Amino acid sequence: MSAPGLFSARYRLISIGAVALIFVAAFENLAVTTVMPVISAELNGEALYAVAFAAPLAASVVGMVVAGIWCDRTGPRAPLLLAVALFTAGLVIAGTAASMEWIVAGRLVQGLGSGATTVCLYVIVARVYPPALQARMFGLFSAAWVLPALVGPFVAGIVGETVGWRWVFIGVVALIVPSAFMIAPAMRTLRATDTDEPRTRARWPLARTAWSVVLAVAVLALSVSTEFGGAAVFVVAVLALVVALVALRPLVPAGVLLARIGLPSIITTRFLLAGAFFSTEVYLPYLLTSEHGLNPAFAGLTLTTGGVAWGAASVIQSPLSGRFATGVGVPIGIAAVVLAIGVVAATAFWSPPVWVAVLGWTVSGAGMGLAYPRLSTLLLGRSERAEQGFNSAALNIADGAGPAMALALAGILFQTMPGASGLAFTGVFVLGLACALAALLVSPRALAR
Q: Average pLDDT in the 363-369 region?
């Protein structure tokens, strides 16, 4: 008899509900990016434009840490319900905002909820699905970003032009509530399982929560450091980077900053890989519009091809777990990202035909689709039950902190290097290439026990 699949009667509702939550978060992120210029113009919020994007990223760090602690103490049921409630409340606050300050406030609340939701879903995957299905579930999570990448900006633009930008926020509420209710049956199962085990009676680790707030502030400072002028850019960035690394240490397993063999290096690899990919992705459309004369729509198609390749590779890699071992899939995926960023850097320096960059970024997306789900599965496989929340939070913190730090450094390079012949873009992409190469060098330590 064959084992039940992700959409068998036993797992169907939880699979659909969990993937729907990821889909909604992805759609909201891309949709808000599309309408934020309109919001900023209507609410005279140009000064807070960058903060509106940095705020949810910073707040998500706190949500991840608190959710991880809570999941390890009592299971994921209660923190997930609160996380969805916070995300919904943030949407309502932003959708009814009368000023840009309230937009930022709503985005902060959203960030708390979205960060906590992701960690809770990781713990649910660990506790509901057998190991054979976990890689497939993480593949679906990655694929859930593909459709929003295709339709999110277009739908948001239509909604913003017809009924107004507020419905971009309010309309998402109608999607997230049914998604959360689909997971309710699994919540009852988790409740019964969690109550069979002794709960942690130790005091709530306030120090870890406080460090998460410090890291959030440092990430926010890094994200806006390029808004300062002159030498202040370097001063703010260096101080924020040092504080971020110091605050990161208590929030991740021991040895992450040193890339210690085993579980710590799994998180180190994700930290470096995320920083490499997303710092390059942000500047690639800028390169194509400013140096190659493409309009924003065509430049954005480059990112779409990468997103589609990521989703397709994520779906394809999960059935190959037996024939395509993790020890092969992770380094091959990272090597593809290294190759692709190298191609992008060459595009900036030598200006070959645009299709070279498009093809390169498609390869990069495929590489991320191979490596990302397998790193998630590796992490859960190396985590004790009582540490699933903490380790899941650490992995998601790496996903946020890595790009934030890389983007801050990229912004400084872009501002200080000469722009002639694409040298400023080349410097940014060489930084991404260095991060990707570092991830490739660390990955064997992540695979070793």
A: 92
Q: State the pLDDT at residue 197.
A: 47
> Which pLDDT score, from 0 to 100, does residue 311 have?
81
Q: Is the pLDDT of residue 194 over 60?
A: no
Percent of the chain whose predicted confidence (pLDDT) is above 90? 31
Question: Which tens digits make up the pLDDT trace of 65-82?
Answer: 999 899 888 888 889 989
The residue with tokens 């939701």 is 117
Element (H, E) at 199: none
CB atoms within 10 A of CB 307: 26
pLDDT digit string (tens) for 3-37? Answer: 678 888 888 888 888 888 998 888 887 778 778 87
Q: What does the alpha-carbon distance between residue 221 and residue 58 come to, in Å, rounded to a whole number? A: 9
Task: Identify the DSSP state of 44.
Answer: T
Among residues 408, 398, 401, the alpha carbon closest in space to that of 237 is found at 408
Mean confidence (pLDDT) of the chain: 83
CB-CB contact of 426 with 348 (8 Å): yes
Give CA–CA dist 125/122, Å, rounded. Answer: 5
CB 357 within 8 A of CB 84: no
Q: Name, in order, each residue with C-beta under 8 angstroms of 177's C-beta and a sequence gap of 6 or more.
A: 84, 88
Mean pLDDT of 345-350: 85
Which tokens is 84 given?
């969805």
Q: Is there a contact between 250 and 211 (Cβ–Cβ < 8 Å)?
A: yes
Residue type (1 letter), 16:
I
In whole angstroms, what separates CA 85 from the centre of its chain? Answer: 20
Between 169 and 349, the higher pLDDT residue: 169
Q: What topology does CATH give the domain 1-189?
A: Growth Hormone; Chain: A; (1.20.1250)
CA distances (Å), 96 to each of 31, 153, 387, in order? 17, 21, 39
C-alpha 272, offset from chain centre: 13
Q: Which residues of 17-50 are buried (b: 16+ CB within 10 A; e: fewer)?
A: bbbbbbbbbbbbbbbbebbbebbbeebebeebbe
120 and 80 in contact (C-beta within 8 Å)? Answer: yes
Enter the pTM of the model.
Answer: 0.80
Tokens of 258: 């040193």
Give the dihedral sign, CA 232/234/239/240: positive
So what's the architecture of 258-449 in CATH?
Answer: Up-down Bundle (1.20)
